[in-house]
Amino acid sequence: MGDRADEGGDGVTTSRSRNKAGTGLKIERVWTTEGVHPYDEVSWERRDVVMTNWRDGSINFEQRGVEFPESWSVNAANIVTTKYFRGAVGTPEREWSLKQLIDRVVTTYRTAGEEYGYFASPADAEVFAHELTWMLLNQVFSFNSPVWFNVGTPSPQQVSACFILAVDDSMDSILDWYKEEGLIFKGGSGSGVNLSRIRSSRELLSSGGNASGPVSFMRGADASAGTIKSGGATRRAAKMVILDVDHPDIQEFVVTKAREEDKIRALRDAGFDMDLGGSDIVSVQYQNANNSVRVSDEFMTAVENDGGFDLRGRLDGSTIETVEAKKLFRSIAQAAWECADPGLQYDDTINGWHTCPETGRITASNPCSEYLHLDNSSCNLASLNLMKFLRADGGFEVEKFVKSVEFVITAMDISICFADFPTDKIGETSRAYRQLGIGYANLGALLMATGLPYDSDQGRSVAASITSLMTGTAYRRSAELAGVVGPYDGYARNAEPHKRVMRKHAAANDEIKPTSPVATAIVREATKQWTQGNKIGDKFGWRNAQASVLAPTGTIGFMMDCDTTGVEPDLALVKFKKLVGGGSMQIVNQTVPRALRSLGYPEEQVEAIVEHIADHGHVVDAPGLKPEHYPVFDCAMGERSIAPMGHVRMMAAIQPFVSGAISKTVNMPEAATVEDVEKIYFEGWKLGLKALAIYRDNCKVGQPLSVAKSNKATTPAAVETAAAAPAAPAAVEKVIEYRPVRKRLPKKRPSETVSFSVGGAEGYLTASSYPDDGLGEVFLKMSKQGSTLAGVMDAFSVAISIGLQYGVPLETFVSKFTNMRFEPAGMTDDPDVRMAASVMDYIFRRLALDFLPYERRAELGIFTAGERAAQLRAEADAEAAAVTGAELTAMASSAPVEAPAKTEAVAQPAQEMADVAAAKPAPSVGSSTELLEAVIGKAADAPLCFTCGTKMRPAGSCYVCEGCGSTSGCS
């Protein structure tokens, strides 16, 4: 991005002042070409975005003719259109092109950058705007959602997604907390607060009575959050509540949500609707917040040594009670085992990396625990798409990554100059300390694509190297900005501790042990960035009190078409993909074939392995795949899931190179024990994490239950941390057993018989259906009566028929028996199924064609000859429409409001396929999580989206909806 125009200028002023000395940044081109606008380098097309209501199928959003690059997925375009385009739908003011959205944001950043003296000349400002435009257009990075919501609009220019509040031991402060939290929730953001300053219920009021205690006041805040959510928000209010481990009410705080979970079970068994979003769930408390205990080194050492620990009064610090540290730690683990709360935040580690201790301690975090800094402050986030820096040969674009971090950090700091904040106190702190949170997404995809297991020394080495390079470059740019427009206002009083933390980061970088040429090159550059940055910082200070966090990247991850969010591994090897003409299909993650090629597999084997994954959802027993390569394809869920400690080790590898923390929940299998939770929490402290939360499958009643019997055995692959101690006693629950009921066919039923030939072997298939046209009986006739083959076919027919009558879906049989290979196989006499891998393959393809709706067959890849022909025509029409699309783009530039009406042919290139899709019901599977459930036969613990009703998928410590982009936490 170039050097400053004058490192030695007098540009070091306060952070609020403009650059008066005439110095500024010289901007060099990295991604763009001089004389060519970024918009002219991509192909554009028009699309229709129509979103339906999951309850009744009615249309709740419709905007036709929106303009996006051809390379953007349907999901990315849908989410940007519904979430980020401003203006009332159907009015001329409504944005209809991605160009308008990017221009609205980038123009604001450029104007503010020039106004506040960031650039050496107008020409540098223009290059900066073009580079930022190119990166956003090509999905190299994204700002957090509030930037897209607010920047360049008449609304307040709020750019931050994460907030930390403060509450003191007075009613005025507590009521201010309720109000400030409500204002933040109203704007769709989240906040966190530490309640440890509030005196405990075991202390006295000035009037002589007993205090209520913080847990009591939590009830009021929880009710407020729930009311604001139910009053119109489309997601739960995102909030974090923290209590110090030495607070006298800590034991009550620890069990609050676990005890409420007991209530949920009792009410559910009594017949009340206690599912997520159920009508009766509002009767239980503390459901709108994540809870965390702030533990100290003193406490953890007492746990390690089996010692006592003092709970101290808030008024005078006197000891109220001495408890057994190990017993209290066990109660924390027990509660987390039961309901996933509370998580832990490691206080001394957090404050040991604090750049501004002279201003105040870090006491709290945002709801997802990645932003940790001063009370009454906020953090502005942006995330880079790591896959954009992966070269075809498996190398990493180190230089482009460095330059991209420079651009993003510069833009993020500019935003604080013009940003608005929800409260005056937050605004003052944010402007004085200018906290930024650059991060990344697609780490899991990057590691898999390069053939590295997520849970491996090689994978952790690459992840640590990239994170160190990102943060080192961010702080180096921050130091350069301090030389141009001055350090943050609070730097002078915190200069020495800030320098100390920078040295700690640099020392941690020196400890990285690269295990590959790629990691070696990245670490070499990271060392250079830390050395240069600390040298410049010693001279000018730093512009920002913090630079990096690792956020969930939920909605913006979809905007960038990322396969994985934040630091997460792949959710699964198969996922659900929306199609341009409507409908959807199951695909194998495109990272998989790239990984196989990186590992040296020939193309024929790649195709065979991908086909196996498509059929089974995992790589176990894939043809030709070496068992030593299985770990490369381990995922967060499924047949081969990453062990809990694998997640913890990855977090520990990258934590020393992050200013804040890491938003990530360590998923544990249902068979995990309380001792396993204890070990995870203890190892998190030992490994230097700042925050850690766990989630044990099916520990919450308000989540879907398993639909298949889960494996109760604790295996090394499933629970690496299993201990020899017996499992914690599970709560005795009322078990309601549901038995299937056989639905027999009537004596007289419609049927049809098909004669077939597969590889020369002939036979007959007779299928009988219920009067409502559902398949209920199958008879197969091959060979002579009395032969072994005829007997096997008769028995098989009876088994399939009884299964159908007991309610086994036909698609289940189809998915199991198609692609089964054995002789006879080959050509058939059926025009819709020209080739069959076996008789079973043919029979169930024929049954699917005759009895399954189009969408179900599309998911299974089964089409009639006519449908395949229509697909080919659609592809041909799409190629022809590319030229027409370019003409329409030119027309749109002169008549943007009317242009959408002229693009019907481009949006729907294959009318035949559209007609078929329109005549069929919607598929039951609507997201990658639901698809994964179908593959592994076990329900995933994820809530339904309050907006569109599809099952959400994990994103850090939150959840995100693939259908509409809504999140359960911070944007």
UniProtKB/TrEMBL annotation:
<feature type="domain" description="TSCPD">
    <location>
        <begin position="746"/>
        <end position="849"/>
    </location>
</feature>
<keyword id="KW-0170">Cobalt</keyword>
<feature type="domain" description="Ribonucleotide reductase large subunit C-terminal">
    <location>
        <begin position="160"/>
        <end position="695"/>
    </location>
</feature>
<dbReference type="InterPro" id="IPR000788">
    <property type="entry name" value="RNR_lg_C"/>
</dbReference>
<dbReference type="Pfam" id="PF12637">
    <property type="entry name" value="TSCPD"/>
</dbReference>
<keyword id="KW-1015">Disulfide bond</keyword>
<keyword id="KW-0237">DNA synthesis</keyword>
<keyword id="KW-0846">Cobalamin</keyword>
<comment type="function">
    <text>Catalyzes the reduction of ribonucleotides to deoxyribonucleotides. May function to provide a pool of deoxyribonucleotide precursors for DNA repair during oxygen limitation and/or for immediate growth after restoration of oxygen.</text>
</comment>
<keyword id="KW-0547">Nucleotide-binding</keyword>
<feature type="region of interest" description="Disordered">
    <location>
        <begin position="1"/>
        <end position="21"/>
    </location>
</feature>
<dbReference type="InterPro" id="IPR013344">
    <property type="entry name" value="RNR_NrdJ/NrdZ"/>
</dbReference>
<protein>
    <recommendedName>
        <fullName>Vitamin B12-dependent ribonucleotide reductase</fullName>
        <ecNumber>1.17.4.1</ecNumber>
    </recommendedName>
</protein>
<dbReference type="InterPro" id="IPR050862">
    <property type="entry name" value="RdRp_reductase_class-2"/>
</dbReference>
<dbReference type="GO" id="GO:0071897">
    <property type="term" value="P:DNA biosynthetic process"/>
</dbReference>
<keyword id="KW-0560">Oxidoreductase</keyword>
<dbReference type="GO" id="GO:0000166">
    <property type="term" value="F:nucleotide binding"/>
</dbReference>
<dbReference type="InterPro" id="IPR013678">
    <property type="entry name" value="RNR_2_N"/>
</dbReference>
<comment type="similarity">
    <text>Belongs to the ribonucleoside diphosphate reductase class-2 family.</text>
</comment>
<dbReference type="GO" id="GO:0031419">
    <property type="term" value="F:cobalamin binding"/>
</dbReference>
<dbReference type="GO" id="GO:0050897">
    <property type="term" value="F:cobalt ion binding"/>
</dbReference>
<dbReference type="GO" id="GO:0004748">
    <property type="term" value="F:ribonucleoside-diphosphate reductase activity, thioredoxin disulfide as acceptor"/>
</dbReference>
<dbReference type="InterPro" id="IPR024434">
    <property type="entry name" value="TSCPD_dom"/>
</dbReference>
<dbReference type="Pfam" id="PF08471">
    <property type="entry name" value="Ribonuc_red_2_N"/>
</dbReference>
<feature type="domain" description="Ribonucleotide reductase class II vitamin B12-dependent N-terminal">
    <location>
        <begin position="49"/>
        <end position="139"/>
    </location>
</feature>
<dbReference type="Pfam" id="PF02867">
    <property type="entry name" value="Ribonuc_red_lgC"/>
</dbReference>
